[in-house]
Amino acid sequence: MTNPLYDALIAPQIDRAAPLLLTDGAEISGAGFAAMAHRFAHALVVLGLEPGDRMAVQIQKSPAALALYGAALAAGVVFLPLNTAYTPDEVAYFVENSGAVLLVCDPSASESLGPVAAHHGAAMQTLDGTGDGSLALLAAEQPDSFDPVERGRDDLAAILYTSGTTGRSKGAMLTQANLLDNAQVLVDEWRFTADDVLLHMLPIFHTHGLFVASNVSLLSGGRMIFLPGFSVERALRWLPRATSMMGVPTFYTRLLNDSRFDRALTGHMRLFTSGSAPLLAETHRQFQARTGHRILERYGMTETNMSTSNPYDGERRAGTVGFPLPGVELKITDPGTGAELPQGTPGMIEVRGHNVFKGYWQMPEKTAEELRADGFFITGDIGVIDADGYVSIVGRQKDLIISGGYNIYPKEIELVLDEQPGVLESAVIGVPHPDFGEAVVAVIVPEAGAEVTAPALEAAIAPSLARFKQPKRYEIIPELPRNTMGKVQKNLLREQFRDSFTG
After folding, report:
1. Each residue of 169-202: pLDDT tens digit?
2. What domains does the chain contain, in order, with CATH numbers?
3. Torsion over CA: 69, 295, 20, 217 (sign)
4. What is this structure's pTM?
């Protein structure tokens, strides 16, 4: 009987006496982890879940939470991880839309989410960040071994909901093959082996922490330093025991702000990777100067897992996300016509390959809009391929600014602004304008102690940007709003400054 993801990720742990998960409180062996996953799998069966049923999970990161993912694989249950910041109203939408049979939440949320589960006909169980709760109590009564159900490569393994910044969230359906094949490519491309110890401080409700970091480590047979979240102190304490680290840009900028983060601390490290949000070129430079390491930046999204990566061997080029991964086709197309564009011309990124999702759950119209009949997925990201084949992300299609009939890509302006003295980072947005339709507004975060003025920036960027691209207004703020994965929330900035020219 075959079950691709279980066979590759969980089964190899059954006889593994060596540590798999290192935490602040304990070491958990591979065998201990597999036994935990099996007990949870039995619990799911006791609760009446069958293969193909959906389980919505909104819980804190913990070894037990990861074991519950393993249990879902064993029992053939479709895993549906939810951001811990979602409100009860948002959770209600996910439970209703997915038809979840079971909702697992933190005990502290049982009062607010109990009515949600009941209203939509789902059972509810609890599991907290220490591994306690009603589901843990039920699992404790179950056997340590479990016969995994049969699953095929095309069967659903997970549904991940998009952030929903432009309307209702869509549930991306990810198959066994999507997740397994992508993890295998990353293990090969990033040279992960059983000798690796991954410093894991990412959330596991997101593709980065769950399907990249965790799957890669489980598949390679390495160990994970499995921490509930990021802090500089945690990172500094555990880095001496790690060989690799996966993070988002804010992890690295905060580490660089601490003088203890230096070559002596990182000299033994093999690999630092970054994703989920663009990494500033300045961060690349500072990191290399401080540590001697070049961060490896890659590109992926909920619907595609990982699509591109800078090379392990070869130039890791700042401002780019590298090359398409093996088995992935990538092209740049005209957003209006879908025609492929010449090299060096910005346009829509489309990808096809083993990594691309099966479609949106119960949304055939949206699936047809974004997933072409030939298998290419329209990402919504605007990119460009340079003469050497490196892919750069220019921005999101929804971030495109049309001012006076001209198309303006914010990233081009941000790259120029970020190079200016005293500028830590920038975000460029379009807001309503009575004459131009939209006008360019630059939101600037200064470096600590630096004084940045609009006239100085205007003069500095004038030689580098066409007049129609230059911001018509500058806003200086202490920090950019970001989501839990470090992505700048431009929708909030657009709302904040929408009356700049019409108020």
Report:
1. 899 999 999 999 999 999 999 999 999 999 999 9
2. 4-15+28-152 (3.40.50.980), 197-396 (3.40.50.12780), 400-496 (3.30.300.30)
3. positive
4. 0.84
